[in-house]
Amino acid sequence: MVEIVRLTDRAQHEALLERFHADLYLSAFAAQAEPLEVWKWALWSDEAPYRMTLQLALDGADIMGGIAFELYPRSRCGLVTYVVVAPQARRGGLGKTLRSGAARTLYADGAQAVFGEVNDPRAPHSYETAEESWTRLLRYQRWGSRVLDIRYVQPSLGPGLERDRGLVLLRHAGDAPPIDRMPGAVVRAFISEFYQITEEGRPVDDELAAILAGIPAEVRLLELSPAA
């Protein structure tokens, strides 16, 4: 039976974290992977400027999947960063259980919005087909997520990593029904804080300034389809 375990105690859970990062996470997110040491710092350092949570789905000693999510204090927004399910555990609802549980936890902890990122199936990716990208996005939309109708660029996740310009930003609905628009001020505050923390205070450049300036007073939330 699969058990969802939150990694809280470094002495007890560090080895599990290392296995998950090496065996599942890196294979799924090789193109833009966060270093293991960043995770350890975010989970177990008192200096982290946001709160990271990592939950693993365990079947005995086997890791069936995992999810990482973060709560940003100034904007009071959550971000579901990574969801990974082992090949042998797919198509059984584990991904939805992990994602829905993360959104529920973040909203219960006071998040005014919970966001996520996925590959934009309308943009080419060297490591994934458009069909694979559409499959993931449509699955998330069935779970109540909607695409923000803005230009989105993911900040650099670490030294030597480029910003990712091939993603869309999602709003996860949690237990409530999906909505069709949200305040632009909430989106702007989240993106500003996300960049400031992730890129370690790098000055606002022209690209980020254009992204923030392009966020309207109300942001439409879209349900995309391949035929659109």
Quick description:
It contains 6 helices and 9 strands.
Description:
The structure is a single chain. The protein is an alpha+beta fold and 228 residues long. The chain has a single domain, classed as Gcn5-related N-acetyltransferase (GNAT) (Aminopeptidase, 3-Layer(aba) Sandwich). Helices cover 35% and strands 25% of the residues. The chain has a nine-stranded mixed β-sheet, with helices on both faces. A hairpin with a 4-residue loop joins strand 3 and strand 4. The mean pLDDT is 93.
Give the tags:
228 residues, alpha+beta, Aminopeptidase, 9-stranded mixed sheet, 6 helices, 35% helix
Number of domains: 1
Mean pLDDT: 93
- Enumerate how many helices there are, as a single number: 6
Judged by helices, strands and strand pairing, the structural class is alpha+beta
Report the CATH superfamily: Gcn5-related N-acetyltransferase (GNAT)
CATH architecture: 3-Layer(aba) Sandwich
Question: How would a crystallographer describe the biggest sheet?
Answer: 9 strands, mixed
CATH topology: Aminopeptidase
- Indicate the low-confidence ranges by residue numbers: none
Helix content: 25-40%
SSE pattern: EHHEEEHEHEEEHHE
Number of strands: 9
Radius of gyration from the CA trace?
Answer: 17 Å
At the first level of CATH, the class is: Alpha Beta
Q: Strand order, biggest sheet?
A: 1-2-3-4-5-7-6-9-8
Give the percentage of residues in beta strands: 25-35%
Can you tell me the overall shape? Answer: globular
Termini separation = 41 Å
